[in-house]
Design goal:
The protein has 429 residues and is mostly helical. The protein has a single domain, classed as Alpha/alpha barrel (Glycosyltransferase). Helices cover 46% and strands 9% of the residues. The chain has a three-stranded antiparallel sheet with strand order 1-2-3. The radius of gyration is 21 Å and the shape is globular. The protein starts with 22 loop residues before the first helix and ends with a helix.
Length: 429
């Protein structure tokens, strides 16, 4: 990895000092970081206990599983991980759609409109229809599984009358057939806050309704781009078919969603009007999570990534949040979402989520921003130790909220530490 020239780095982590060590010492600090060691051990401990999203969830969610399956591969036999993935394919809709998650049928009772399949009688599934990331998440998870285990035979496994390879393509085709705007050449979903799964028009907000305002955002489309890249690598014989789709989505993300004047992604393109007041300037809101995923999709240049980091740092300071996991800034005003959890700086409306902050760390590392990555990693690993767990999200006062064993957070932090260690090892060679 190309290493940037190390200047100085402001962080309170360094034993009371406000200045980071020089470049040649960074490797040593990574390797001796007590928080890294604790988080790695704790992450393994948590992920060993199962596959549901966390102690507040009974279901195995694909958007979560996608972010800790690599860690699961360290502690489970490949066959166990494979079986979880196959459940999603057995419960795939006739139109190609993928469920959000599954739970043992006898435990189904969380208020969802449950989905059942003759191919998988053990489980009940559910799908938050305001989302447009389930299909992309499954493709990404299968890719990570194959890379982590070397088991490419899952691709030829038959589920019903189709192979997993065929079902992967059908999942992508579902998005093009049922969630694609021909006008903009991009995927749409319900209006949500960044990567969230709560629309403003309903007290719960997880299902499309007659009141839904349909919108295009960067998160859904960046996830789709990553999934297409993964699928073309898994199925190189299909690249000729899918490469033009990838190119179309990529170009239209830049054309329609990137605000070159303000160097940020606009929150939404509305297809049937906005749910918010006419005098509300939504473009003042910065989407941290969607930007991180867009970087992973290769949508931003090095200079644009640098500007994005600077904007995120400004938002952290202005909000008082503890980490780069801040979802959005500024948050949507009070009352803009009927779901009471979506108050300003609550839940997905300005809460601080390691689940996405960790993904930003990974992208900083992969794009050469090692010093910035190390600085922004510290508050996230420190609070894991301080709270003895991986909480779902944190308030701007750094108070833990939600599940205390949120496996997605464990997965992204574990992966980030792995990348730091690879960097340190490469520096010593």
């Amino acid at each position: 990895m190309k290493i940037l020239v190390f200047t100085i780095l402001i962080t309170a982590f360094w034993a009371g000092s406000s200045v980071s060590p020089p470049k040649e010492e960074l490797k040593k600090h990574i390797q001796s970081n007590e928080y890294f060691a604790f988080v790695k051990e704790k992450a393994v401990e948590v992920v060993k206990t199962g596959f549901n999203a966390g102690d507040g969830y009974g279901e195995v969610w694909i958007r979560d599983y996608n972010t800790f399956i690599e860690l699961s591969a360290e502690v489970f036999e490949a066959e166990v991980l494979r079986e979880n993935l196959l459940v999603f394919f057995r419960m795939q809709g006739d139109d190609g759609n993928i469920i959000d998650g599954f739970i043992p049928a006898e435990k189904a009772g969380g208020g969802y409109n449950y989905i059942y399949s003759e191919l998988e009688p053990r489980y009940a599934g559910h799908k938050n229809t305001v989302e447009t990331d389930q299909e992309s998440s499954l493709v990404q998870a299968v890719y990570k599984y194959v890379v982590a285990t070397g088991d490419s035979s899952i691709l030829t496994e038959r589920v019903g009358d189709k192979t997993v390879s065929e079902r992967l393509e059908e999942a992508m085709e579902f998005l093009l057939n049922h969630r694609f705007s021909k006008k903009y050449g991009l995927l749409w979903g319900a209006t949500t806050a960044d990567w969230g799964d709560v629309q403003p028009e309903h007290e719960w907000g997880v299902y499309l309704t007659n009141d839904t305002h349909y919108a295009i955002d960067i998160y859904d489309n960046a996830m789709f781009l990553i999934a297409l890249e993964n699928m073309m690598e898994l199925l190189p014989e299909k690249k000729e078919k899918w490469q033009p789709v990838h190119q179309l989505i990529f170009e239209n993300c830049r054309k329609h969603l990137w605000d070159n004047t303000n160097k940020k992604f606009i929150p939404h393109i509305y297809l049937n009007g906005s749910p918010f007041p006419d005098d509300f300037n939504e473009n003042k809101i910065y989407y941290h999570g969607g930007t991180a995923v867009a970087i992973e999709a290769g949508l931003l240049s090095g200079d644009e990534i640098k500007i994005s980091i600077e904007k995120m740092e400004e938002n952290i300071k202005a909000s008082g949040a503890a980490s780069i996991g801040l979802t959005v800034y500024p948050p949507y005003p009070e009352g803009f979402f009927k779901n009471e959890s979506m108050y300003p700086y609550g839940y997905q409306n300005g809460g601080d989520w390691t689940w996405f902050g960790g993904r930003m760390i990974q992208q900083l590392l992969k794009n050469g921003f090692v010093e910035e990555a190390y600085e922004h990693m510290q508050p996230m690993v420190k609070r894991v130790k301080n709270n003895n767990g991986f909480f779902e999200w944190y308030t701007v006062n750094n108070e833990p909220k939600g599940s205390g064993t949120f496996r997605g957070s464990a997965g992204v932090l574990w992966k980030s530490i792995q990348l730091f260690e690879e960097f340190a090892e490469s520096e010593s060679e």
